[in-house]
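To assess whether ligand presence alters the predicted conformation, the chain was also submitted together with phosphoenolpyruvate. Input:
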Amino acid sequence: MSILMIANWKATPDSLKVAIKNISLISKISSPGVSKIICAPFVFVPLVKQRSLIMGAQDVSVFSEGAHTGEVTAKMLFSLGVKYVILGHSERRKMGEDREIIKEKISRALSAGLAPVVCVGEKERDSDGEFFGFLREELHSLFKGVPKKNLSKIVIAYEPIWAISTENKGAIDPHILRETLVFIRKIMHDVVGNKEASKIKIIYGGSVDHRNAKEIIKEGGAEGFLVGKASQTPALFEKLLKSIR
Ligand code: PEP
């Protein structure tokens, strides 16, 4: 089974010229056993159409079509060849996106044929373990009622907000990650049933780079990564990809 490497370019790069150059550079990186999914800003998404890369997007409209100025719909993305879409990222939640909206977007993405990469993660780790309750609620409310036939398309990105590189706290300890992923898998068993839950991929995001990626897979048990900073510079991305060969 190949490792998912989902690059979240966020609002970078800031020119077409650099986007073309970066895509060309990363398309040449050899990474056997790794699926390289590039989630570029909407305007650069079509440039990602390269044989060695998979097209992704960073968000999708909550609407299916119609009079919604500025929106990009799931069907539009699918028609471009996009396969994955990041949903529920903490940076979008900060802009006001709530669980109801995310749930609606999951449904739009699935109906259009896109695989949603749904971000879940606590703001902080409290010593009483209250974050477990938060994760349980989050998973129940986002995935309850998703049609069984679509569950194998879902990717859960466990991304503790405190571990994102902008917080400067570093990545999660791989052993703690393993515990948390087991917990997430168990909750998903409760939400969708054993057979279905085992089809869902669970990846990790938060300060992943060439120094920690291998351990995150080996000790942490993640099935892939959601990567921000280390995916936005081709040289760093190459180091990261080589580190997990
Ligand atoms: C992210 O924001 O999705 C992310 C994983 O960022 P970083 O890798 O920079 O921590």
